[in-house]
Design goal:
Length: about 160
């Protein structure tokens, strides 16, 4: 899927990108603050929020930019849910590239399972710091290899492992 974004709806490279993507058979979405714009017409799906004129004329970063950011937040959140990266209301595919994210992983595992900090740390350590695997380990009482296999068998979706096992 290709998403083209242009506040005015007439940015040439966005239109060309959408047209090219469609010629390749890609699904396309156009986000523009002008209904009926060239971007909206170039895409299969048009998302065109009505924002009214900008407070500062010509400053599309204000109303239009804010509306488009909200749309992108909604789309990306939906995609994260549909791809199994969310369990309940927790982002469970956090990769710990620093100490802050390591602490976040511990909190996520604790919140998802009701375990102690020590249990979360031990599970994360046993599975190479893979949040989803640690959660399945604790909720299903499995070792890291078994939990990883179950996740793989269910496309990475924790909920499916819990409901179908």
């Amino acid at each position: 899927m290709v998403i083209g974004i242009a506040a005015s709806g007439r940015t040439p490279y966005v239109i060309a990108g959408l047209e090219y993507a469609r010629s390749l058979g890609c699904r396309t979405v156009g986000i523009s603050c002008n209904p009926g714009s060239a971007v909206a017409n170039a895409a299969e799906i048009a998302i065109t929020p009505v924002v009214g004129p900008e407070v500062v004329s010509g400053s599309s970063r204000m109303k239009a930019g804010t509306a488009q950011k909200l749309i992108l937040n909604m789309l990306s959140t939906g995609l994260m849910i549909k791809s199994g990266k969310v369990f309940g209301n927790l982002m469970v595919d956090v990769v710990a590239t620093n100490e802050k994210l390591h602490l976040r992983q511990i909190t996520i595992v604790k919140n998802a399972t009701g375990c102690t900090r020590q249990e979360a740390e031990a599970a994360l350590s046993a599975c190479g710091r893979h949040c989803k695997t640690a959660i399945v380990m604790l909720l299903k009482n499995l070792n890291a290899a078994e939990a990883s296999l179950r996740l793989e068998q269910h496309g990475g979706f924790i909920r499916q492992v819990l409901e179908k096992e």
